Amino acid sequence: MFESIQAAPPDAILGLNEVFRNDPRPGKINLTVGVYKDESGLTPILDCVKEAERRLVAKETSKGYLPIDGDPDYCRLTAELNFGAGHEVLESGRAATAQAPGGTGALRVAGDFLTSTGAARTIWCSVPTWPNHPKVFEASGLQVKNYAYFDADRHGVNLDGMLAAIREMPAGDVICLHACCHNPTGADPSPADWKLIADAVYDRGLMPLLDFAYLGFGTGIDEDAVALREFARPGAELIVASSCSKNFGLYRERVGSLTVVTKDVDTAQAVASQVRTAVRVNYSNPPSHGGAIVRTVLGDAELRSQWERELAAMRDRINGIRKVFTQKMSERLPDANFSFIEKQIGMFSFSGLTPEQVDRLKVEHAVYAVRSGRINVAGIMPSNVDALCDAIAAVSS
Ligand code: LMR
Questions:
Q1: Tally of domains within the chain
Q2: Is 378 a pocket residue for ligand 1 (Cβ < 6 Å)?
Q3: End-to-end CA, the chain
Q4: pLDDT at site 397
Q5: In whole angstroms, how far apart are CA 213 and each of 100, 133, 227, 265, 280?
Q6: Is the pTM of this model over 0.85?
Q7: Least-confidence region, from 104-108, 158-162, 176-180, 349-353
């Protein structure tokens, strides 16, 4: 039965990470997968997470199943984090939230929900986007189309191109938007731009699906939620897939959530039942541990402020190393302009390196980046920034 099966191509991001792991060269540099690293190269477990785990182990009395849509307290607390406590869409009961296994799990449940209910057939993704977006949506049976997003010459958002594309999309289609810290470019619309984008999306009768994987990694918790809150207008419908992988450092615990905002309470209840159906046939119900950690941290004033401090420290380190990298590149290549790296936000930057230059970085310098030129800025440290800048200068000349 299996003899004729061909090997699948390695994943563009996680596959590269495996190749990196097996590279024996000392001093190798990993700028591939979007995982935070501290100055010593460690992906730390946050202190607030450790403390929450201690409390959970002491108190946990059962490993029975969670409800199909997860822990209600986790769902309430993450929705409040995303929308802001007391937000009308939460108070009115017109939003349905389900705990999901990571942001990717939330995206897949969203896709399955859209196709199984017949709510939508087509989703539009930015060019470029996270390479897994089209694959997840296609696996759900959605047709994937693309819209202009990035202006490579200016290293920023092509707002006019994006708005023009939105105005051509058929009503009833879904548009996938990166709510903050665009992956892979690190270039976000401004708050004023988001208002124009939301106007265009709703004028056109589109359904926004906001992928919200990097809350707190851009400018701050409330600042990074600006796009989501712009879309959460009175009476508006939207879908939010959020992740706690990065901002709580809970990558392997697979914890995220899906919120569908509808017109009214009755619709929200019907939608919630369809989301539960999509979950049940997929993984039955979510894993508990990561969600229990997030619920414990967000539900305790002291742990929550500790988390906010630890999140700010991760954000500040990335923003600090962006400055150092930009400065060191300008010393090595005075005629090249790398200042955009300092202006972009979140974990990633689109470096402008060509696929051939990325290949040379890997082969000649043991520097690993995604072939699109995306670099994980959180992989740059004081101990490797000089070697990295030397390598980029070498392949740029
Ligand atoms: C990334 O883009 O590197 C992260 O979102 C991790 C992943 O699953 O690809």
A1: 2
A2: no
A3: 51
A4: 80
A5: 13, 12, 13, 27, 24
A6: yes
A7: 349-353
- What's the pLDDT at 116? 98
Instruction: Give the Cα separation of 148 and 166 in Å (integer).
Output: 9
Task: Give CA–CA dist 43/251, Å, rounded.
Answer: 10
Q: Cα 48–53–54 angle (5° rounding)? A: 100
Closest atom of ligand 1 to CA, residue 13: 9
Residue ending a domain, among 250, 274, 299, is 299
Determine if ligand 1 sits within 6 Å of the CB of residue 34.
yes
Among candidate residues 239, 265, 299, the one where a domain is terminated: 299
The range of the structural domain enclosing residue 149 comes to 65-299
Q: What is the mean pLDDT of residues 235-245?
A: 98
Query: Which candidate in 69, 112, 211, 224 is catalytic?
Result: 211
Q: Which parts of the chain fold into alpha helices (H)?
A: 14-22, 47-59, 72-83, 88-91, 102-117, 132-139, 159-168, 191-203, 221-224, 226-231, 265-280, 289-298, 301-332, 339-343, 355-365, 385-396
